[in-house]
What we know:
By secondary structure, this protein is of the alpha/beta class. The chain is about 40% helix and about 15% strand.
Amino acid sequence: MxxxxxxxxxxxxxxxxxxxxxxxxxxxDYIELxxxxxxxxxxxxxxTDLADFFNSHNxxxxxxxxxxxxxxTTQEEWxxxxxxxxxxxxxxxxxxxxxxxxxxxxxxxxxxSESEIFEDxxxxxxxxxxxxxxxxxxxxxxxxxxxxxxVRSLSEGMKIIEAVDEANVGLVIDAFNLYLFEGWKxxxxxxRIPVEKIFCYHIDDSDDLPLNILDxxxxxxxxxxxxxxxxxxxxxxxxxYAGICSLELFNPSYWSLDPEEVFEVGAKKTKVYx
Length: 274
Ligand code: ZN
């Protein structure tokens, strides 16, 4: 697998420019660009500057993330999603990066039935597939196991992707997000995912807390927590996955550190799983 870092990891203590320097310095092969951080960067420099950077360094962009709350949108929310999709596609023309990560809707008190969620997800992902197809871009759908999310499990995510049936729509395997759903009780489910449908592996460990208390702030460096990362990674390798292994943390205590340290420790802790 390829060593990658997701910009969420230092989103509150770094910038895109700083992330690029630190990722290159610490031997990362890829970086997942956050759409909001890219927009900020573009306030002071053009995309061609970014293209120059990637052309002259080992580091490459893996893709863009994330577009959230994609289900049951209002017209206004959908228009914003479309704007973000096209923004990422436009950036791809200059700098590359082949995947946009999209996330199902998280909202407390949702009362949609399983079939309504399935149908809406298929409809929305099919629409996204068509929008980004002319740019040769892929859509990576990321189930999140928390109770308030409408698509929580890997098997549910896979059923949706199968029904969409488009080559440019696949899944993100996020170790933490899927741990939130029954603590990876059905880890063998991963063996049944066709490898060509896995567009991205987000690696992240977790504090040892009850699942109903865990939140993204409890994400830890790989090996520092309780997620069976060795087994998850071994299954991914066994089924032939050789894409990015991207460190994606949202831990405020890491945001209080020097990003230099986070990139360095992150590379060391993630490399053992490649
Ligand atoms: Zn993720």
